[in-house]
Design brief:
The chain has one domain: Helix Hairpins (Orthogonal Bundle). The protein contains 2 helices and no strands. The protein is mostly helical and 146 residues long. Helix 1 packs antiparallel against helix 2.
Amino acid sequence: MPFRFPLATVLNLRENLEQKEARLLERRYVELSAAQGRLWEAEQNIVRAQEERAHQLSQGIPAFQLQLALSEETRLKQLRDDWQGKLQEAQTHLREQIEIYKRARQQRDTMEELRKRQAEDFQREQLKSEQQERDELHLMRLRSRE
């Protein structure tokens, strides 16, 4: 008779939950990476705008163009600040998801360990039962010879 784990459906549920949380964790890493990329891009845009403004100032520009350039830098800095906030939010979500995934993995590991122990116990009982049968058979043969 083969071993059947009575909590196999629970183990399967735990495995599925762990996989789901792993996919969400991967998604959180992608979100974090995207936010880092957008933040870097925003910072590069600010640097380019500042360099362009400095170049224009060295050549002399009208005040309204300077005002436009400063307004654009302000807009770019606000965009950078927004991405900085989104990056911090992504980092928070990632840390939270790491903890959720760890719990799901631990629960699955616990069920897997229980299944392993029960399978080992089953195997020991099977071996013990087989040995008892062999012993009884041997005793019966000895008695029949008497």
